[in-house]
Amino acid sequence: xxxxxxxxxxxxxxxxxxxxxxxxxxxxxxxxxxxxxxxxxxxxxxxxxxxxxxxxxxxxxxxxxxxxxxxxxxxxxxxxxxxxxxxxxxxxxxxxxxxxxxxxxxxxxxxxxxxxxxxxxxxxxxxxxxxxxxxxxxxxxxxxxxxxxxxxxxxxxxxxxxxxxxxxxxxxxxxxxxxxxxxxxxxxxxxxxxxxxxxxxxxxxxxxxxxxxxxxxxxxxxxxxxxxxxxxxxxxxxxxxxxxxxxxxxxxxxxxxxxxxxxxxxxxxxxxxxxxxxxxxxxxxxxxxxxxxxxxxxxxxxxxxxxxxxxxxxxxxxxxxxxxxxxxxxxxxxxxxxxxxx
Amino acid sequence: xxxxxxxxxxxxxxxxxxxxxxxxxxxxxxxxxxxxxxxxxxxxxxxxxxxxxxxxxxxxxxxxxxxxxxxxxxxxxxxxxxxxxxxxxxxxxxxxxxxxxxxxxxxxxxxxxxxxxxxxxxxxxxxxxxxxxxxxxxxxxxxxxxxxxxxxxxxxxxxxxxxxxxxxxxxxxxxxxxxxxxxxxxxxxxxxxxxxxxxxxxxxxxxxxxxxxxxxxxxxxxxxxxxxxxxxxxxxxxxxxxxxx
Lengths: 342, 245
What we know:
The complex is a heterodimer. Chain A is an alpha+beta fold. Helix content of chain A is 14%, strand content 31%. In chain A, a hairpin with a 7-residue loop joins strand 12 (198-200) and strand 13. The longest helix of chain A is centred in the last third of the chain and has 21 residues, at 287-307. The N and C termini of chain A lie far apart (45 Å). Chain B has helices spanning 25-41, 67-78, 109-115, 120-129, 222-231; strands spanning 6-10, 14-18, 48-52, 55-59, 93-96, 100-101, 132-137, 144-147, 162-165, 169-173, 176-179, 184-186, 189-193, 214-216, 240-243.
């Protein structure tokens, strides 16, 4: 019998996401998908399942969730305060969510987008080949209290596993390659761009992230007017007032503002997750250098499963500690502990 | 810089082949025809192709695909013919979409006619007799940019934005028409209203139009459009479609 996960209480911006919906650019629809794809791979590694399965993306804050059967969950992305029936559970880890238990997920303490993964995935309706919401295109909708989703068949069993957290939640250096109009910005303007400290504008969303900074705006030579041209995620448009705008997965397919560069795919999660005010610097790379970084990033994704480790639990946080059999089974008076090695 | 076509990389996501710096019929024709040729070549490295007004984009993974090799192939393909005078791809559709011009449904017809230097009746005659092509699709899913209209329709976008024009609105600027996918603010002028849905997410064919399709917008009365709206729930808006051979 299938299990249903119900949203008892919803934060302001919950949506079903997956790795997106490629193949429709010519028809005016961008790929979309999770703002932080790395978090999708981490959740898949924690649950030992396919990264193609759909998850719930939580922007800024989570909600309250209840399932009508035991399910496995994993929590990744922006760190949020999570509890199961009042007991704190660790972020970036997998857990058992028993039938009827209340999972509460609070506000983000680091980063912007948190993810709730379930063993077997969220089986929401498939639309144009994917489950991802694409709100700017009118596909899917923000989730609300009372929404329920069937959970897919879960072939895994393990919970209580964790992955180390990387530094993508605190801003930092974002690598870019030259884009279609980079050469229309003078070398001095490009240098100033790479020497300026930016921070994510609080109005940032899944369409784009405006970068705030002190000082004058950036401008292409000769007040460049350009014809509308293809956009890829990571493109940094310089809008009319001179502010850089990093385009994200839910952007439009084409745009007419000059682009000073393109953020490389592996650094898009860093732009997406940076909390408002977190410092960001841009650094240009050659195509060859960027390819080297991307290969390293893909290798890291492949290595995630091998990095999963059992959670070491703090005994003070274990409910009903006295019910646990703490000493039995560790040493047997009869077994030869070295027999297995012989 | 002035030599076209130009080939350039787009991030690590693909390659753009640009046929001009400004919009023109031959350059748009080149982009559409070249895209069809790339699709026909079925290069396994290319996961997706698209066009904007005067360029063709090939989505491919530059991390894995050797760039030099792709540029060489594209250069060879470009050299096979004059793309600016190439035949447009076959299998395109000719659409006739019933349109109400002016009235309170499309309140900027007079203003647009004035800018185009004709009276409103002549504007309706010109717009309803024009046969335009989908130059590109973008901004919103399935939303066509169509052209080119006669030269007198090279009218600017308005300074301020209209707060919202409805889905199905036919709007005009810079010798181009757009049918709006969703209600949205715009700087283009609202001259006609259709019942045509460009994006039908739950239908078998979610995107009605393809780049290269041709369209006419015959003038109908308001009553006729109301009848279409009440009798047809498909989003076709009373449109007639025939395959161009």
